[in-house]
Every structure is written in structure tokens, then in C-alpha cells.
Predict the 3D structure of the following.
Amino acid sequence: MAPERFFLELSPPSDLLRDAPHVVIVGGGFAGLRAAHVLAGKTVRVTLIDRRNFNLFQPLLYQVASGLVSQADVASPLRQMVGQAPNIQVLMGNVVDLDVERKEVIFNDRRYRYDHLIVAAGAGSSYFGHDEWRPFATPMKTLEDAATIRRQVLTALEEAEQTPDPVRREFLQSVVVIGGGPTGCELAASLNDLMRHTLERDFKQLDPSRCKVTLVDPGDRVLRAMDPQLSRAAGDRLLQTGVELLLGGRVQSIEAGRVVVGTADGERVLEAGTVCWTAGVTASPLGTLLVERTGCSADRGGRVIVEPDFSIAGHPEIRVVGDLCSYSHTANGKPLPGMAGPAVQMGGWVAQDILARSQGQSHAPFVFSDFGSMAVIGPLFAVADLRGFKVSGPLGWLLWGLAHLAFMPNSENRITLLTKWLWAIVTRERSALVITDGAGAAAPPAAQGSDERVTAARA
């Protein structure tokens, strides 16, 4: 006999779950998906709400942007991940409001009552009060962002192959990446490898040595959150492969194809056909909504300040996890970083705590296990700090690859990624260089040179 199927909150659930507590999870990222996995098959009703129907593996977005893997390789459908569990309903929509008195979330013109609410809505890109820069410097937070960067780079190279003007050609072969954290370093290294080796093999008109990738950061070194030894190794590797580092530089303005950076020696103007932004993050708007509806507090980045059990003051039924929460109940008093590792642990612990409370049992306090940090700097080179074990080079890359495959929630994607990585190492070929997204999108911006040179480039 086929199992009974039902829509949670839309029609009565099965008799087994009719009186079970209802857990609503907002966000299907690392934290939300982990919470759903823990609750799958348990005597609770679960509704997982996300504005997308997939879980995005954000740490590998830069590989989509540089054509190493496709979009499907880093996105896993939520219904396939947890939707087949009999007690979990996956719904696609954008939560627009909360009624904390009635314990309801509002989305898709409906109200859903909850007994427990887990908010794992994540974070977006911050331009530090300069949102006017966004149209000219693509962020790296969504699948669409990565596809846009890939399209911009490949379209620029296709135009460069046809233009007779050397100034325009050099402009099109240039990329500026703003932000020297892990995402910025990984993106700069991967785009540099793409442009130099793809050009050498596939384009006849272009000179790979004229490619230029510039990484801008206000600090004195890249990867400032990592050990100085590893940071130095990463910076040296970037320089060795041809990436230019502009350290100690703060962005003053961004226009189409033009970035003005203030340095100790004065302003420097960078011109490039592609500009990418990886410099800052801001909490989801749901954080502001929670502050307005509950009176809870948030930090300067908009992250909700939570209690030791991830609840907010006065509302033990509401938990905030992942990039949206500011959790400072640590041994050193520093907030947990917005990374995949902490998010997975938060989501899993909160789900276990809800189960324990629903059964009248106690639950051990949350203790974060820091497994370290790592960043990949091009093919077969990565830096990693794993609980004091510091390594760089090919061994670091191997550890990085194993860690990312382990975190990947979809087994099929693990196999696909491993295959494409090995193929790229052996052949230096990339599998996702087809320009299909955003048909009819605007051409690369004009270089900010003299009118005569720009006119000649367009002729």
C-alpha cells in the first residue's frame, strides 16, 4: 500500500503526526539542511521553506564563475535531499513577515503556524554603504552571481579575440577582484588560471601574458584571518602565477570598467572588462524583521544576537542559526565565523535540542568543534590550518579537496566534482565554458581611455 501523502498545514497530516510539534525551518542552506536531516523520520512535522528549490554549495561558487564546474554540480534539489522523508514538506517561497504572538510565518499569501521556528536565512553581499557600486562589481553569493561573472569573462575574451585595437584587447583581458579573503583569493587564482591557459590553447589572437588579474584588499596581506605563515604562502603563490596584489588599498569609487583605489602613494585607477566583489557580507533582511517583531538585538553586521541555545531573548521557540546569527558564547568570547562548518554544527545541535525538549529530556550545551580553515590557490595548491596543523601546496590541496567532498550534501555531485577536478588537472581543460546565461546581456564596458582609442576599439 502506498504511503499516505499530505501537505503540512494545508490539509490534516497523518494520524501519527497529527499532534506532533511543528518545526518550520526558513532557509535550505548548510544550517537549515542539516537541521532537516536530523529531524527526518522523527515524530515531528517539519516544513522547510526556501526561496529556491535547491541547496547551494557556496564554497565552490568560484569554480562555477571560472568555468571549472557547472551550476548543477554545486546545487542539490531540496526535495531530493530531504523532501522524501514522510514528515518533511518542502515549500518554495519567500518569507515576508512573522507573527510572533500567534507563532506564524507569512509567505506566498499564507500563514503557517509553528511550534518551533529555525531561521537559517543566511547572508548576502555588503558594499559598505555604496550599493551604487553593485551594477559594476558583481558579487559572489548566488548561483546567478557566479554565472554572471563567467559570462562576463568569457564574453570579454570572445570580443578581445576579434578586436584589432591593443588597448581595448588588454582592457578585455583584465579582471579586478575586490576582497582578499578566501573567496577573493580562490576566485582570483581560478580566473587567472582560466584566462592564461584557456587563451594559450583555444584563442589565436590573444597573448596569455597580457592577461591581468588584480586582487585588491585594504590589509597588509591576503587571508588575514589565517596564520601569517599560510597567508604569506598564499600571497606568494598568487604572485608566482601572475596575479597582481594591491594591498593596503581602499576602494574609493567604482564605475563601468573602472575602479579607483586609494593607497598610501595616492589614488590608483584600475581598468578591467570584469570587476568582482568579494569584500563584505550583510545579514539577511529576516534579521531586521526579527529585531522589529521581537525586540531582539543585532550586531553591526545585522546578525541576530542569540542565547547559548541559539534562541532569541523572550522567545525560546525561535532559533537563529548560520550566517544570520551572532553567537558569542564561545571559550574566547568571539562570534563564530560565517562558514559552512559552524553552520552545519549549529543546525544539527538545534534540531537535536528540539527533539530532546519535545521528549522532556535534557540536552548537552552546544560546543563548537573548530576543524580549521583552508583556501585553494589555483591547481594543486591550497593552504590549510587544521587545529594547528599548518600545510600548504599539493598536500593542502588534497586535504581541501577531501574536506569539500565530505561537506558536499549530494553523493552524485561528489562523484561529478571529483571527476571534473581530476580531468582539469590532467588536461587543463574546463567543462563549463559555454556562454548560455543571460542571452542578450550588455557587452563588456568601454575602457576609460581617450575617446579616439575607445572609438578605434569599437570599430
The mean pLDDT is 90. Residues 41 and 85 are 6 Å apart (CA to CA). The chain has two domains: 15-125+282-358, 131-279+373-458.
